[in-house]
Amino acid sequence: MSFEPLLTELLEGVDGAISAAMFDAEGEMVQIVGRKGIDRHRLQLIGAYESIFHRQLLDMLALSPLEKITCHFTWYSRGIILTYPLGDGYLLQLYGEPDCNVGQAFHHMRAAYARILAEM
Questions:
Q1: How many CA atoms lie within 13 A of 22 on its CB side?
Q2: Global confidence as pTM
Q3: Would you place residue 1 in the very low, low, confident or very high pLDDT band (cuts 50, 70, 90)?
Q4: CB of 29 within 8 A of CB of 92?
Q5: Confidence class of residue 38 from pLDDT cuts 50, 70 and 90?
Q6: Structural element, H or E, at residue 40
Q7: Which end of the chain is more exposed for a tag (fewer CB within 10 A), N or C?
Q8: Pick from 36, 114, 55, 48: which is nearest to 81 by CA?
Q9: DSSP letters along 79-95, please?
Q10: Are the C-beta atoms of 46 and 54 separated by less than 8 Å?
């Protein structure tokens, strides 16, 4: 099943977005779309490390009364990453520039998340 059209729509719908991708439970890239000229290997590494961060966050939250992560947002000096867990360890991630339109990112990610869940 290809989610490339949906990921492309997500990427194009957010000002300042660099890539949209799906990763599996092991942090391996399932599918990615990115702006022309972007280093795919770099994006793959960023996504893999963000997947590890997400798993560690889940482990930490398991020790608390909080239930589950709906999404998490990380703002770094060189960019932002918005992550939505899809179930079975799969993650939907949007990577953007530091001045990425975060409102658009959340809006379009929620819509993409719902569409992907409906197709899975």
A1: 22
A2: 0.87
A3: low
A4: no
A5: confident
A6: helix 40-61
A7: N
A8: 48
A9: EEEEEEEEETTEEEEEE
A10: no
> How many angstroms separate the Cα of 91 from the Cα of each of 37, 49, 59, 65?
24, 12, 16, 23
**Can you tell me which residue has the tokens 């590494």?**
45
Helices 4-13/102-119 angle, 10° precision: 170
> What is the number of other CB atoms lying within 10 angstroms of the CB of residue 107?
13
Q: Which amino acid is at 1?
A: M
CA distance 54 to 83: 8
Give the DSSP letter of residue 38.
-
C-alpha count within 13 angstroms, C-beta hemisphere, residue 106 = 7
Sign of the CA dihedral with 93 first, then 17, 42, and 20 last: positive
Distance CA 107, CA 120 (A): 20
The pair of structure tokens assigned to 100 is 């990425």
Name 95's Cβ contacts closer than 8 Å, sequence gap at least 6. 17, 18, 19, 20, 21, 43, 46, 47, 79, 80, 81
Pick the closest to residue 77 from 54, 98, 46, 56 (CA basis): 98
